[in-house]
Design a protein that fits this description.
Blueprint: H1 12-55, E1 59-60, H2 72-75, E2 79-86, E3 92-98, E4 101-112, E5 117-125, H3 128-133, E6 141-148, E7 153-154, E8 157-158, H4 171-177, E9 183-190, H5 220-258
Parallel strand pairs: 1-2, 5-9
Antiparallel strand pairs: 2-4, 2-6, 3-4, 4-5, 6-9, 7-8
Helix pairs in contact: 1-5
Length: 259
């Protein structure tokens, strides 16, 4: 590089600005990576807690005194049981896509012996004919997983109570549409009933319970490695700029000696 084309050293102000940018970017990326590490630990703990709840023996469902404290962190996917009877003629069909195909969740209010009503998702039915055939269930004991209400509707589709079209299990809206009082703020995904040996190619006994999907995406390690990798790239870029500035200053010093 000749004297005419050599790049001048950066000013102290320019170096201060560049250093601040590199430092802020590096620190920000390190913080994001650390946050993802914390999120991963939280997610693993959540998965462990949910697995313990799902496979635990069924316990009593929260009663009215506990309803204000019901939350996802404390109660979602708890294995619970109810004693009582289904209220006939008040079923709701909620559109669903499951592992065994598209159709509906059959949700029926369950009058508990203790008094309150709990909405029970009895399981999947492929159509209204199967739902009608299953409406006369005489079960007096229900076990299943506690789920929180799903207000509003499904993806890009709002519930339409006036037309009796449902895309999510919105407890408050379903209770209002069916004229129900003193309803728990959660619903129960019923366990699959044990029907004994089933003949080959036989149609399942509708509704089919036990289809709750329990899946928690856990990509936090990948995200953490991505942020830390970007932080290393910023550090490498800062090092290259420092080396370039060092060469510029040496070249400028050599020119001063020649002059």
């Amino acid at each position: 590089m000749t004297a005419n084309t050599a790049k001048r050293p950066r000013s102290r102000f320019a170096l201060a600005v560049l250093s601040s940018i590199f430092f802020a970017a590096f620190l920000g990326l390190i913080v994001l990576g650390g946050w993802q590490v914390q999120r991963r630990a939280w997610k693993l703990d959540l998965i462990e807690r949910v697995e313990a709840r799902v496979h635990a023996p069924p316990g009593a469902a929260p009663g009215p005194a506990d309803w204000p404290q019901v939350s996802a962190a404390r109660d979602e996917y708890r294995h619970v049981q109810l004693e009582g009877r289904y209220l006939g003629g008040k079923d709701s069909l909620i559109q669903a896509v499951t592992a065994i195909g598209p159709g509906f969740w059959l949700v029926t209010p369950f009058q508990t012996d203790a008094g309150p009503i709990v909405l029970v998702n009895r399981g999947f039915v492929p159509g209204k004919r199967e739902a009608a055939a299953a409406a006369a269930s005489a079960d007096t004991r229900v076990t299943g997983l506690l789920r929180l209400s799903e207000p509003g509707g499904g993806f890009l589709r709002k519930n339409a109570p006036q037309q009796d079209r449902w895309y999510s299990r919105d407890v408050a809206a379903i209770a209002a549409a069916r004229g129900l009082q003193r309803v728990a703020p959660y619903f129960i995904d019923a366990d699959r009933r044990d029907e004994g040996p089933v003949a080959a190619n036989a149609e399942p006994a509708w509704p089919v319970g036990g289809l709750t999907v329990i899946k928690f995406p856990n990509n936090h390690l990948v995200y953490a490695l991505t942020w830390f990798g970007l932080a290393l790239m910023v550090a490498a870029a800062a090092w290259r700029v420092a080396l370039e500035e060092r060469r510029r200053r040496r070249a400028a010093a050599s020119l001063d000696v020649i002059r």
